Structure formats: C-alpha cells, structure tokens
Amino acid sequence: MVKLIYHFFMSVQQDTRVRMYERLRRIVEKHAAMDERPFRLSDTMALSPRDVRTIEFLSQKGTFNVTSVADHFRFTKSAASQLVNRLVRRGVVHKEISPHSDKEYHLRLTDAGLEAYRLVQAMDQDRLEAFLGKIDGFSRQQIETAGAVLEAVEKMMDERMEQSG
User: SMART domains attached here (predicted)?
Assistant: First the structure.
C-alpha cells in the first residue's frame, strides 16, 4: 500500500513537472511570436523588439559601433550592420565616422531615438506594474519558488545557447 501511494505521489509530481515544462514551452513560443510583432510606440513610430533592444543598448553611456552591437546581442556583424542601417534609415540612430578609423562608425541615438527610448521606458514601466499586479497575492515563498524555477530555466537556456555556438 505504501509503495502504491509512493508511486501515485511520484506520478502526480512527475505530471506536474511535465505540465510546467509544457507551459514554459508555450510561453517561449508566445514570446518568439511576439518578437515578430512591432511595438507601436506612438502614432508615427513602430519598432520591432530587436530595434527596441538595440535602442536600449545604445542609450547606455559609452562608445558603440556595429561590432559592439553584434557582440552584445550575439549577432553576426552582418546582421548587426543590417539592423543598425535600418535604424539609421528610420532616423533613430546616427552613424559618424570614428576619429580612429575611416572604416568604423560610432553610433548614437538621434533625438527621435531618445524619444523612442523614453517611450520604451514608459511601456516597460507599465508592463512591470501589470506584472506586479498579477503576482500581488503571491506569498514570499511562492515568489521565491518561482524565482528558483526561472533561474533553472535561465541556466538551461544559457547552456543551450553555448552548445549552439
């Protein structure tokens, strides 16, 4: 009888873990689908998630070039160059020739890019507040457990990224 109860408990626990994995897969698939949709920041500006992340990166203090964008996002230099050129055409990034090399360009946000960054920050704040509202009734233990699960998922994703090169 004890053995039967143990197997039932282990089966329920395994099913719960499998359902959690399946839910995480659905979340990742939804995130990937959302990553294809542009963010409408205003009546005149819609940017892809990749554009938004690049603007956030370029908003930091420092000197940036196409190589630093490629390195930061783990893109090829060609993909980073295409992304930067698209943002230049959209008027949110300015390229200027480096004082050290005429083959390198320094990147900075234009006034429109800075405005896009401000709009992205406001959107992020709204999303954070919505998220906090969703977990408002959770206990500290539930949040810590969820955090541990998310940490395990992040480690798994890091390992997968390292394996894929």
Answer: HTH_MARR
